[in-house]
Design goal:
This protein has twelve helices and twelve strands. By secondary structure, it is an alpha+beta fold.
Length: 477
């Protein structure tokens, strides 16, 4: 779990007292709580206290590490408040710790603990006497068994000598259908779940399908479910890092209808990092580019603080699930690449005609989930570290615990159709890198509790109670 290189200052150690320099702190260390702490109010209060303390260090010349720690605190809070996400995180954490422990075992000492079979002593297991004794023992046991059967057999009565009792046919009474209480069965997460729980109806009734936040950003509700992540072997343009595997997302979430625009960026950050750069067209509705992963995280932290909610970058699995819009084809509308120009800005309708810049968001057709520009226009940062994934079933995957480059997805105005596929994964870049091809869109975790039910914490922020309903895996995927 390598640390990022914002500067040489170690805020984790100086401010939070976390002394392990070889890895990033765990979620529990970040919040300063024990591994068995499961009280939501305690977790939220701990996160809020840490946030206020770290935020107070801003302006001391270490703003980059402040932003990183604030993002990780929000990530830790979101994960530990959701049971499914917490179980998966704990599983990965224990696996990582086990691997680290195994690496510390001395191979020489390990071999010395393997005990070889002792040499037989003189006369042991050898010679005529021991062989004869063994044969005699077997013979005696056989005689004893035969003798026992010879005394027992006369007492057994042949089945042919027993007169069978007459069988009386008695009609069975017709009983009313039994009222059987429903039995709660824990689902096997290793298998696709085909039935929809009743709680899905509660979710639909309590969470809006679309919201607009304080800066005019529209977000669509993406309901939880299962899907095939990656691509099949016969998909045109497929790369080797797209191993297909089934993924279950147990938590519904909101995702921006479009990429974050220049207007939305300026509303929060009061900066224009794209200004004066090549391959840019300026305007309120053009996507914000020349923003790094670190910049996107800082933006989400500021917006979260302003609204008292937890905005974040989507995981790679959340991004692809939303991009597919319930489809398993190369694109959200099918596999016919000739139709892509209706849904995306790409090389064929941008670069080749001399329009060398990202275009205004929302001007192409949306996917089945109501999201625009998931294919093309600009690549979009995800929260994960970049790594290959395997073919095993995964629940709420969030990428590896360590890495050096971050993931972005979706293709851009510079790319061919194959690079705008739902499963396409461009090799990412370092979190501090910026460019004309990369932007981002935000995710937001919804709450089904009313305002009166939200726990009030210290300070001016109200942290959303993250109580989610699990939706049928087959509903949207």
């Amino acid at each position: 779990m390598a640390r990022s290189n914002h500067d040489d200052f170690d805020g984790y150690r100086k401010w939070l007292g976390i002394t392990n320099k070889k890895r990033l702190p765990t979620h529990y260390e970040l919040l300063g709580i024990s591994l068995d702490e499961d009280d939501p109010e305690v977790i939220q209060a701990a996160a809020e206290q840490r946030r206020h303390f770290v935020e107070s260090k801003r302006g001391d010349g270490h703003d980059a590490i402040v932003t990183e720690i604030l993002y990780r605190i929000s990530e830790a809070e979101t994960t530990l408040l959701n049971n499914e996400m917490r179980r998966e995180y704990d599983r990965q954490r224990k696996l990582w710790e086990k691997r680290q422990k195994n690496r510390q075992i001395d191979p020489i000492a390990s071999r010395s603990r393997v005990r070889s079979r002792p040499e037989p002593t003189v006369g042991e297991g050898t010679g005529f006497v021991s062989t004869f004794a063994g044969i005699l023992g077997v013979f005696c046991v056989a005689i004893a068994i035969m003798t026992w059967f010879s005394f027992q057999l006369p007492w057994f009565e042949s089945a042919d000598q027993v007169e069978a009792a007459p069988i009386v046919q008695v009609p069975a009474p017709v009983a009313a259908p039994a009222q059987v209480a429903p039995v709660a069965v824990k689902p096997d997460l290793a298998k696709p779940q085909a039935t929809e729980p009743a709680s899905a109806e509660v979710e639909r009734a309590t969470i809006a399908d679309e919201i607009t936040n304080s800066i005019g950003m529209k977000l669509k509700l993406i309901r939880a479910g299962e899907f095939l992540m990656g691509s099949p072997d016969n998909e045109t343009g497929r790369d080797s890092d797209e191993t297909q595997h089934r993924v279950q997302l147990t938590t519904s979430y909101y995702l921006g209808v479009t990429e974050v625009t220049q207007g939305q960026w300026f509303a929060m950050m009061q900066t224009k990092p794209w200004s004066g750069k090549k391959f840019v067209k300026e305007g309120e509705d053009y996507p914000a580019t020349f923003v790094s992963w670190d910049d996107a995280v800082e933006y989400s932290v500021k917006l979260s603080a302003a609204e008292g909610k937890t905005y974040r970058l989507p995981t790679e699995a959340e991004w692809e699930y939303a991009c597919r819009g319930g489809k398993s084809t190369a694109y959200s509308f099918g596999s016919d690449a000739t139709r892509l120009k209706d849904y995306a800005w790409l090389r064929a309708n941008a670069r080749v005609i001399g329009e060398l810049y990202p275009h205004e968001v929302g001007t192409k057709q949306s996917n089945p989930f109501g999201l625009h520009d998931m294919h093309g226009n600009v690549y979009e940062w995800c929260s994960d570290w970049d790594a290959y994934y395997d073919s095993s079933f995964a629940v709420d995957p969030s990428g590896p615990l360590t890495g050096s480059i971050r993931v972005f997805r979706g293709g851009s105005w510079l790319d061919e159709a194959a690079d705008c596929r739902s499963a396409y994964r461009l090799v990412g870049t370092e979190p501090a890198d910026r460019g004309c091809l990369v932007g981002f869109r935000l995710a937001l975790s919804p709450s089904v509790k009313s305002d009166s039910q939200r726990p009030k914490l210290k300070g001016n922020l109200t942290v959303e109670a993250l109580d989610f309903e699990i939706v049928s895996p087959g509903q949207r995927a």
